[in-house]
Design a protein that fits this description.
mainly alpha; Serine Threonine Protein Phosphatase 5, Tetratricopeptide repeat
């Protein structure tokens, strides 16, 4: 008998050949075992400042002027200061015209900043500082304080976080980023308005009196 599949002759009887063919076709194929490599569990690590950064912040609080800008930086925007330049390329400040008092935070913000420097690794203290800055309209000043810290320690994680939080809060509420009005500005404004109004009344009275004389005066 000739095999229909391979063409070879076989001496087996047709019944036996049929049984062999059916048996070969019906043999189960062993399943392929897949090997799964276990994935290690992710470990969440909270970013915290190093001990050296904490000590550096505490030393900054004890320094002669904790709000001083390090040399080599613009005293206003804390951008890198180019050697020999007379003005800042970032904010346009003419260095000779800089007045430190104009960039001085309020007493409340100063006290809060000194407290934060004393416990730099306390995240809640940073959040309270930002809340105070938002409430007083000194968010821009708080951002400047964090930039001063970054100028001293560029790798400080909490200084980076504070700077980024200021940007986030300013984006969410642009009004909070507006600098606080100098003390007494509203009183001066009211005085100027009162003087202008008085001058307006005086000029109006003179014009009315002149018109009255021209109308009813003698020729």
């Amino acid at each position: 008998m000739t095999c229909a599949r391979c063409g070879k002759e076989s001496r087996a009887r047709p019944e036996e050949a049929l049984v062999v063919a059916v048996t070969q076709e019906s043999e189960p194929v062993p399943p392929v075992q897949q090997r799964f490599t276990p994935v290690p569990a992710l470990k969440v690590v909270a970013l915290r400042p190093s001990d050296e950064q904490v000590r550096g912040a505490a030393a900054m609080a004890r320094s002669e002027d904790p709000f001083a800008v390090p040399p080599g930086f613009c005293p206003k925007c804390i951008a890198a200061r180019r050697e020999g330049a007379e003005s800042c390329a970032s904010c346009g400040l003419v260095y000779a015209n800089f007045s430190p008092e104009e960039q001085r935070p309020s007493e409340d913000l100063q006290a809060a900043w000194l407290s934060v420097l004393g416990r730099w690794d306390d995240r809640d203290a940073h959040d309270r500082l930002l809340s105070l800055a938002v409430g007083r309209g000194e968010l821009a000043m708080a951002g400047r304080l964090y930039r001063i810290r970054l100028a001293q320690a560029p790798e400080d994680l909490y200084a980076q976080r504070g700077r980024d939080e200021v940007v986030r809060l300013a984006s969410a509420s642009p009004v909070a980023f507006a600098p606080a009005a100098p003390p007494g500005l509203s009183s001066r404004t009211q005085l100027v308005v009162a003087i202008i109004f008085f001058l307006f009344l005086l000029v109006s009275a003179l014009l009315i009196f002149r018109q009255f004389r021209l109308t009813f005066g003698r020729p």
